[in-house]
Structure prediction request, 152 residues.
Amino acid sequence: MLRKARIGDVKTIHKMINVSASKEEILPRSLMDIYSSLRDFFVYYDDREQVVAGICAMSIIWENLAEVRSLYVDEAFRRRGIGRILVEACISEAITLELFRIFTLTYKKEFFQQVGFHTVDRSSLSEKIWTDCFRCPKYPEYCDEVAMIIEL
Prediction:
């Protein structure tokens, strides 16, 4: 079941993000970061197992740009379409807010291509997107994420 994240989900979201970050899939986040951006998150809750199976956030960057970020699906729940459901929920929310350019920085290029994103040169994106990058140990010389965008 897809739903917006709740306060009770924060520690689970934090754990999932940092599990993924330990595999260098996404950037780590502090609890404070998650609390302050909780309204950005969707969770996919598996009713049968009674666990959060996946998470994803849509963050507003500027008046004409949003970011899909912090996508993570628990290993036991992968290949069930949960990632797609989460990303499509973020895209839908962006459209509702009249944001029609949505980007992501990812290591999962093929997945995001299947959802409709295409690769772009990072320099084509607003400098506003680099706030998180400054905290990354790979910045600036070693960044190996792919910049992708969908324009609706």
Observations:
- Residues 65 and 126 are 9 Å apart (CA to CA).
- The beta strands are 2-4, 41-46, 51-62, 65-73, 101-106, 118-119, 146-151.
- The first helix runs from residue 10 to 22.
- The two ends are 26 Å apart (CA to CA).
